[in-house]
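SEQUENCE-TO-STRUCTURE ENTRY
===========================
Question of interest: how does this chain fold, as expressed in backbone structure tokens?
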Amino acid sequence: MVLMRWFGRGEIRRWRDLHVAMARAVLQQAAADLVESFDADLSQADWRDGLIEQTRFVATRIAPVVRQVAEPLARRVIEEADRALAPIAFHHLQWQPLPVDANLMRDMMEELGDWAAAGGAALTGLVRGAATGLPIAGGLGRGGPASDWMRLRAEARLRAKVHAYVHASVVQGPKGRPALLEHVVALLHDTARHAQPL
């Protein structure tokens, strides 16, 4: 009887390890696909989005898509894990949505530095530069060298924020704020601890 339970626990551990690996593969790939997809769109962000309102841009254009894509994948991993567990253990694994951490994005954006203030200062500096003869042909947004430089810099900053947000939301969150993958792994580990071998 003890030997049977030992073998049963081994099966549950193998089940856990297999589905943790599956969760990592699926959600890390989802994060990579999201970043690639967003990268293609970020060059279309206008000056207001890209330079001054980056936090709002991430909140309204990025966060909903991240959740829409990644959460169904996480749920599917859990449902598949539950089906695979049924023949080997007494325990029902159920998907538990990760609550939306509204402050995660705000805190991340603050940590990465928001351009709300910096953007205003930069715009003021460019206008001042025009008055002193700096080469800003045509002004902001019309293709002058300074305008191009500012746009590229703003786009790089926005790209870094989007990448960081996707990673923190899907793969690995800051301390005490689990990402979706960490949430799934915790559910699998918790289930493996409590499941009783058949």
